[in-house]
What we know:
Elements: E1 9-11, E2 14-16, E3 24-26, E4 29-31, E5 34-36, E6 44-46, E7 49-51, E8 54-56, E9 69-71, E10 74-76, E11 100-102, E12 120-122, E13 140-142, E14 160-161, E15 180-181
Parallel strand pairs: 1-4, 2-5, 3-6, 4-7, 5-8, 7-9, 8-10, 10-11, 11-12, 12-13, 14-15
Amino acid sequence: MDTLTDGESYFDACFSKLVSADLRLKNSEFEECRFEDCDFSGAEFKNCKFTNCEFERCNVSLVSLPNTKVFGITFTECKLVGVDWTKVTWPMFHVDFELTFKRCIMTDNSFYGLTLHELVLDECKLHDVDFREGKFPDSTMTYCDFTNSLFMRTNLQQVDFSESTNYTIDVLENQVTGAKFTRFEALSLLECLGIELVD
């Protein structure tokens, strides 16, 4: 398929090398769809719905998702710079939306105040990402680079940060009970306590 239409329902469709930068789409639904090597940079999906879809090697930077619903979405080797996930419609009765990001560039994303249990972030570049006030218990955030990302009053209970680097997490400001950190990187957690480490 090479075109997307307002108000359309797509099921089990495959979109390959679709270039729709700055697209404006509304009231469309995608279920069990696959997007490969597509360019949706700067696009807006308004009042849309994505269920059990896969994005591979796609550019979805600066995409806007006002009042759109997502569930069971996997992004693999995608570029997602500047995405504001707070504009998505997240039903209050649900906490696990089965979102997975693998080997993605996610600089300048915002998850501010969201409740996303069991979020999966694997081998992602997460520079300047806003996780403040969010709830992400039981999530997997492994092999990621969190340079300059913000954590404040964030629920990170039981989160697996194994092999992740460059995070600044104040253990007095965030809930980290049961979280898993790589031993050497975990030393950064003591900085907020004013502790001096000596050899």
